[in-house]
Amino acid sequence: MTALLLLGLLVAGAWAYVRWAAYWVAHGVSAGWFIAGAPLAYVTPAVVLTALWFAVAWIWRTPRPPQARLGIAGSVRLYIGEMLTLAASWPFLALHALIMRDPAPAPAQRPVILVHGVLINDGIWFWFKRRLERLGIGPVYTVNYGPPLAGIESFAQQLAKKIDAVCAETGASKLVLIGHSMGGLVSRAYLRRFGGDRVARLITIGTPHHGSILALSFPGHCLGEMCPRSRWLAELNRDESRLPPVPTTSIWSRHDSMVIPQASAVLSCADNVPVIGLGHNALLSSERVVALAQQAML
């Protein structure tokens, strides 16, 4: 559903731009201006969205230690990196059914399942998955769940079916879960409901373990569950200080643009690993984060 909507928006946007450009070219404006301006038109939604998210993230930011302050140049790099990552992700999300493939069934000792976040699909993992595979990690699988605005418990049930399927295909007794954003909550919901018998380790990346203010800006069951102090989150975190069902690592950014406040990603029962200078989506395009995930799996 997400892929079809995004593909429709991309096609409609391109068609509207071409029609608009054709009108002005017919009235004497050079076509070169519109050819040069096409990339700018494409990234404009990402420019606006990223600016809005960072504005909200700055207002409700978690206080940062002196060594985590970026300065003007660092802040510009942070914004540009997140904006470009967001814009670059759209074709992968739209075409995920064509470009994301699970490995062929084969025996494996420690497969990995990547669990995406809210309102997107497994296309978001395109580069992250390939970097893991180049490091010899895997086999690496992805999961898609829906409908997009259903409850997190429903997504956890779908993840359970994927875990059963991967264990059956590989003969593995346990696997690793890596969840980005809401994907970390889906993974924790799975562990609470089904236990950790089939999971060796959980790694969350930019997960709002205690909610995000941005969840208030969009309707949907799962978004309501991710609001700070929601009843669902309170129940999930009721025994937060106790030993988790499986070893858990939370990789989070002090400059996250969507987990607001940023320290919401800190989980008291986990090994919390902060990074700086990365926005929410840029976490998945960072080789540094891939290296941290690799280290957490050792």
Summarize the structure.
By secondary structure, the protein is of the alpha/beta class.
What does this structure look like?
The chain is α/β, with parallel strands linked by helices and 298 residues long. The protein folds into 2 domains: 2-96, no CATH class; 108-297, Alpha/Beta hydrolase fold, catalytic domain (Rossmann fold, 3-Layer(aba) Sandwich), CATH 3.40.50.1820. It contains 10 helices and 6 strands, in the order ααααβαβαβαβααββα. The chain has a 6-stranded parallel β-sheet, with helices on both faces. It is globular and about 70 Å long.
Overall tally of structural domains = 2
Q: Which regions contain 5 or more consecutive residues with pLDDT less than 50?
A: none
- Give the amount of beta strand, in percent: 5-15%
Tally of individual helices: 10
CATH class of the largest domain: Alpha Beta
Question: What is the helical fraction, as a range of percent?
Answer: 40-55%
Strand order in the largest sheet:
2-1-3-4-5-6
Radius of gyration: 20 Å
**And the CATH topology of the largest domain?**
Rossmann fold
The CATH architecture category of the largest domain equals: 3-Layer(aba) Sandwich
CATH H level of the largest domain: which superfamily? Alpha/Beta hydrolase fold, catalytic domain
What is the overall shape?
Answer: globular
Rounded mean pLDDT is 95
**Secondary-structure class:** alpha/beta
Task: Please report the total strand number as a whole number.
Answer: 6
Strand and helix order:
HHHHEHEHEHEHHEEH
> What composes the largest sheet?
6 strands, parallel
Q: How far apart are the first and last residues' alpha carbons, in Å?
A: 36 Å
